[in-house]
Specification:
- The structure is a single chain.
- With 255 residues, the protein is an alpha/beta fold.
- It has one domain.
- The protein is built from nine helices and ten strands.
- It has helices at residues 4-15, 21-32, 50-63, 74-86, 112-115, 146-162, 210-215, 217-226, 244-247, and strands at 68-72, 92-98, 118-121, 129-131, 136-138, 171-178, 186-188, 194-198, 229-233, 236-240.
- An eight-stranded mixed beta sheet has the order 3-2-6-7-1-8-9-10, with helices on both faces. Strands 4-5 form a two-stranded antiparallel sheet.
- A hairpin with a 4-residue loop joins strand 4 and strand 5.
- The longest helix has 17 residues, at 146-162.
- The termini are far apart.
- Residues 15-20, 33-40, 127-142 and 245-255 have low confidence and may be disordered.
């Protein structure tokens, strides 16, 4: 018959909850900074673009994936998203992990004060191998493995949580990864469930001569440049303009 001490020990051990290191780190991050949400969040982020919010919610209900994965002309949506997040009334902080070194902060439509809360990290191009299965290449040749992306995102997010920077008073919205798959609240790469393209612009009318087409070329180019962008997926679509951060959303159609 077991002793009282042994019984007490067994009961205490039975009450111990087993957790892994990642869960402990996540709990510490939330305790230290309640606004710092991990990329491994189980629910979708809240997006300040109404049409986008609805599509992300639909994708989550169907796939249980909270990540927004953008492809096509993805940078146009990323610029609008970042500009809107860091501007009033949202006033968030955003971390951008720019794998391909393509992010241009001058394209953001926000004040210099709000621009200070956009943190862009670019891993060195050298020494980041890409696994093809038949060998390794460099990031400049097309990307890195999902495991390496996760390591980079973890390091960048740890920096956001634990480092002394100027955005401590703001809520950290999340992480956007450009040029790679595998981690991040938002990915913008060669593969994604939401595709961004220039919205349709009507072509030349039937019976239009070559001379008329040439004469109309400049006006048509202006129409193309002024056309909004279309974000489409199997869950629906919406349109947006490059100046969304200042002008508010364009007409959005969830199909």
């Amino acid at each position: 018959m077991p002793s009282a001490a042994a019984a007490t020990g067994a009961r205490l051990l039975g009450d111990v909850e087993e957790v892994n290191l990642e869960e402990i780190l996540d709990a510490l991050r939330v305790e230290l900074n309640p606004g710092a949400l991990s990329s491994r969040a189980r629910h979708p982020k809240s997006y300040p673009i109404h049409g986008l919010n609805e599509l992300v919610a639909r994708n989550f209900r169907a796939t249980k994936s909270a990540q927004l994965a953008v492809t096509g002309r993805q940078l146009h949506l990323i610029y609008v998203l970042v500009s809107t997040l860091v501007s009033s009334p949202h006033n968030k902080t955003v971390l951008v992990l720019d794998i391909e070194h393509r992010f241009d902060a001058t394209r953001l439509v926000c004040s210099p004060e709000n621009l200070r809360h956009v943190y862009v990290q670019r891993p060195a191009r050298r020494g980041i191998p890409r696994n093809h299965g038949d060998g390794a290449s460099m990031v400049g040749s097309g990307g890195i493995s999902p495991g390496q992306v996760r390591e980079l995102v973890t390091a960048a997010e740890n920096w956001m949580v634990y480092s002394n920077h100027d955005s401590g008073a703001r809520e950290w919205w999340g992480t956007i990864v450009l040029g790679a798959l595998g981690a991040g609240d938002v990915t913008a790469a060669w593969k994604g469930w939401l595709r961004v393209d220039r919205d349709h612009v009507p072509g030349f009318s039937l019976g239009c001569s070559a001379k008329e087409a040439v004469a109309d070329r400049e006006r048509r180019q202006e129409a193309v440049d002024a056309a909004p962008w279309a974000a489409s997926s199997q869950w629906g679509s919406f349109t947006f303009a490059d100046s969304l951060a200042n002008d508010g959303p364009t007409d959005q159609q969830i199909e």
